[in-house]
Write a structure and sequence with these properties.
globular; three-stranded antiparallel sheet; single chain; 73% helix; mainly alpha; Rhopdopsin 7-helix transmembrane proteins; 3 strands
Length: 322
Amino acid sequence: MVWLCASTLIQVISIIMFFPSIILNVLLLTAIDYEKKNGNKYEFYNTIFRFTAHTNIAYTILLTILQPILIVSQSSVYVAILGIGSSFPILLKNFLFAIFIGLLTFKNLESPVALGLRYFNIIKKIDISKKFKPVLIVVFLLCVAATLHYFIFIYLQTQDFAPNWDSYQKSISSYTCNINNGFLVMDRIVAYYLFCEAIPLIIGFGFCVIIDIFLARHILRNNDNRSKIGYHESKNLGITLILMNITTVFLQTIPILIFSIFVILKTDVGLRAIPTLLGSYFMPLLSPAIIFYHILPYRIHLYRRFGLLKSQATVGLSQTSI
């Protein structure tokens, strides 16, 4: 019964989050196009938020297909697949879950990287539009490396566990009330990888908060009239990136860190590991909501699209934001 309640909860959350997440991120893409055609004040940030929206859409689709949960038992870590991906061949399940890890890596890196580039733009006066592509390539390669690493790792683990696959099937069936879901299985060593990835991200989050406070004070003291973006707009951008970082850290990074610690300590948490990936279902909806709430030109587009704002009011709002 515990499994049935847990699996039902995950499936319900996945279905509830799917359509709002897709719709809100598509609206974000149209809002970015609108802002780009009407002044393009946010330039580099438009590109960052565009990548955020595209990643969120891919992330949502993949989560809905897989609906993965973690179970720890008998010195092994199981990734139970609840979605339609449970019927896929094991190699395809492995590949899709590895892509999920790659997207998870991107979600953890996007806000810190944007804040870092924002620092060099404001303090060092470096044109980040020229530096953005090389940085993006590095981030992309890191995500590809994470994807390939976990794909190869899980594949090799699957080969190692293959002779005893039936016993692992019985073990996971004891948690799934004999429901035959697809699953992947890994050794506890995966927890050390997760731990080593989570710690730098949490430390980096602390540095991001400090940097953003420093940037806000610098902008207030040294307001550059030549800049397209005013103080309040720049402050809102900083708040947006920090809040996106906070949601990522508290909904994804910290749960993974706690999970890895339990696994390293050889604690068979069983189904209690389910909340580890639960926050992932909310991330694709929260990040565009945060962006719309703090970035006025995007919000104006949203109001206009739903007929909540007339063109004259739009001009007035745009002027008050400067």
